[in-house]
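re the bet — no i am not wrong, look at it urself. input seq straight from the record:
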Amino acid sequence: MTDPRIAVVHERFTEYGGSEAVVGELVRQWPDAAVFAPIADPDCLRPPLPATVRDTWLSRAHAMTGRRSHAPLLPLAPRAIRRMPLRDYDAVLVSHHAFATQAVFATAAPVLAYVHSPARWAWDPAFRAREARGAGGRLALRALSRLARRSELRAAPELAAVVANSRAVADRVREWWGLPAAVVCPPVRIDAYTPDPTVAREDFFLVAGRLVPYKRPDLAIRAAQRAGRRLIVVGDGRFRAHLDAIAGPETTFAGAVSDAELRSLYQRCRALLMPGIEDFGIVPVEAMACGTPVLAVGAGGALDTVLPGCTGELVPPGDDTAVVDELSCQLDSFDQSRYLPATIRAHAEQFAPDRFRATMAHLVTELLAAPQA
């Protein structure tokens, strides 16, 4: 039996993050797969991603603007995806944030959607309000939200299978699309983040990731102020100016750091803070791979990764004041001796890339064996 012809459709390669790592592991599993995206910046195509991606004219339009922002091109993405040459494949895997499921209209092959999340900014008005900037931004995002909801609902019934990256995302798929979803947590490079018993823990807490509103680094900064605890913030982004304005002397901004520097901070901090509600959350698992406990809001992907009293603690979700109060109490009373690095590391190993690949391969085998309508 010949190997199946697999195509992978990703929303866009405009930055490298968790969803791009998912595509990379799919390519590891199916090295002959063709990878498609409406927009592909070559600088984002690090191995194991292919050096070239089958993109569309939107890539050229993005390059002509100096690749400053992909956002103005997003309304054109659904049409570009529907015109992709996907008809000669046995199965199509889509990596979905908002529009990638439009690939179902470009092929007769079964389509499996790996859903990082249905477009939260399209379905959740409170989330959308935090992301929009200015009256013009709010109007544009509202219009794009209508397009995303229509696109997702039109494509959803045509999907052969839906896989969510966390239980929280599976709940959104059920609520917003009316579909069941299997849960396969994304791969985390736990081999790159490991404990170092020769490194002593230091008296600081850590926040790491893109500095954007939905990740809520502002809540961690306010909690550190309240508790009088040292906080290091790693990362950069459009929220940085606001965070600078509210931070006190206990907070240090480290900016973007190398993988080696980040690993060292994971190994030395008392705990990692995750104050936002993530779809899954790669950073907390990286920290746990280093034997580091995590203090997170008990919602979203943290429910799949943080075991209270074992790998960290979950604070109840609530309004900003309540979350800051709970986080500051955790910081004030934090006892490092309650958490065993070896136990935390063992928990993180279930998110290893080889487990992700094996599970996805099994799902695709089942998909190809199933009778097609």
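see?? The domain at 205-350 is CATH 3.40.50.2000 (Rossmann fold). told u. also The CA atoms of residues 111 and 160 lie 5 Å apart. so pay up
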